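Reminder: ligand-aware prediction takes two inputs, not one.
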Amino acid sequence: MNGAEALIKTAVDCGIEICFANPGTTELPIVAALDRIAGIKAVLGLFEGVCTGAADGFGRMKGKPAMTLLHLGPGLGNGIANLHNARRAHTPLVNIIGEHATWHRPMDPPLAMDIEGLAKTVSGWVRTTASAQELPRDMAEAVRVASSGCIASLIIPHDHQWDDCKTQTPPPLGSPFDPIDPKEIEAAAHLLKTGEKTALILGSRALRRQGLAIAARIRQMAGCDLLAETFPSVMEQGIGLPVVKRLRTSFSAAEAMLADYDGVVLAGAKDPVTFFGYQGVRSRILRADQQETAIGTGRQDIWEALAALADSLKGQESGAVVADARYSRPAVPEGALTTAAACQTVAALQPEGAIIVDEGLTTSGKYYSMAAGLPPYTILRLAGGAIGYGMPCALGAALACPDRPVINFQADGSAMYTVQALWSQAREGVNITTLICSNRSYRTLVGELRRAGVEKLGRNAQILTALTNPPIDWVSCARGLGVPASSVSDASGLADALKRSLAEPGPSLIEMILAS
Ligand SMILES: Cc1ncc(C[n+]2csc(CCOP(=O)(O)OP(=O)(O)O)c2C)c(N)n1
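Here is what comes back for the chain with thiamine diphosphate:
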């Protein structure tokens, strides 16, 4: 075997199933190896941000890494914003990045750059292989580290890919997680036992079904409330699951949600802070007099930490009456296609098991309260704030869960960053309905300008925030990339189009021309 074949064999042995790729010459031995060694499905992304966003979506839904294949530093650079989002989402993900042949690199050829430096900005683990012989070990280590919920980036010089590799695939390398810290558990148990009014703020894997089940037990024993971080990577919701209120984005709303607690325990979530620094507004949402402690920090397994916390509370049953979500589904609305009507239509029609990829920004906020009592479903959110994750993430999620319908709430401005994802969706025939939130504006920025005291937008501010002149023709864009599309401008039109889309296999796009 050559190095590339040994790499792919190791990847298959370590459970990698899919590779989102946009290769170049320095990765071609790996491209050839993907055919010689069976077991990995290759998916072409027409921009690296599509590959990295799709690997994020796949990793979030499967809970294990997908692989990307990226061309040198510039390819990695094109994928970096969605790698940033994946890092913030704690997504397991393995990047394979080609590098020039070792003897060619010192010549400083045109595509050469500091790949390691760039990779470090988003990765929990970075390595450039030392020889073809190291490739199986390096790949196995990359998968192991990534599986704890981070990005592992393996940079492979071209000659190491074509050189002979005589080393065998290493045996499985054991748990990716560090042992849990009993002191953290003790401190959290103490806070929950002694606090008057306490909350457990859940984030990352704690918001999956397994984490929520343990959190519900903790709630029962400690009488605490359950809250979710503002931008969960994966949040399971719906009937039968504990009611978990998501922290709101704005300082005033989040502060009001947290104001009455004398203590909070962070479980896979970070200390809540505002999205930006605003003059006169503090960054931390919690006050200095509120106690805070965290469990499962660093590379610990948050499910194990939650289970240990539950164990340490045994015998503490609070007797609190705690409710799981009860069934309630809003009616299909009629009339103008407001943001509220768009949210209500999705909540009214989404099938059981739906995966909601939310990059709806100023459109999708009202959806959450409307969807609390629906049959079980999963929400993926933009964890890192770098827009352009929605359509690629939907692609990855749909490939990870082919039996589940994916509905992508997709703001129009954000959609244009990685619109090429539609072509991959068409090619893969995945079951995704993209709902374009067509307000023809960077509305978030208009809101921020107003907040900063700009009452009336000047000519340049308008130019920089309006998506008009020309308006984007979404139906033509989608059709041009192979995705059937329609445009709707009232609530009943949306309901009809969404029903049709959900009944048919394959991707489709609905442009929602919003009334407000
Ligand atoms: C990679 C990146 N570039 C720029 C921004 C700044 N930004 C935040 S929101 C936004 C506009 C979003 O507009 P759209 O997607 O149409 O959603 P809307 O605000 O209209 O709901 C921009 C440009 C960002 N967050 N990430």
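The CA atoms of residues 265 and 306 lie 11 Å apart. DSSP finds 21 helices and 18 strands in the chain. We will return to this case in the review session.
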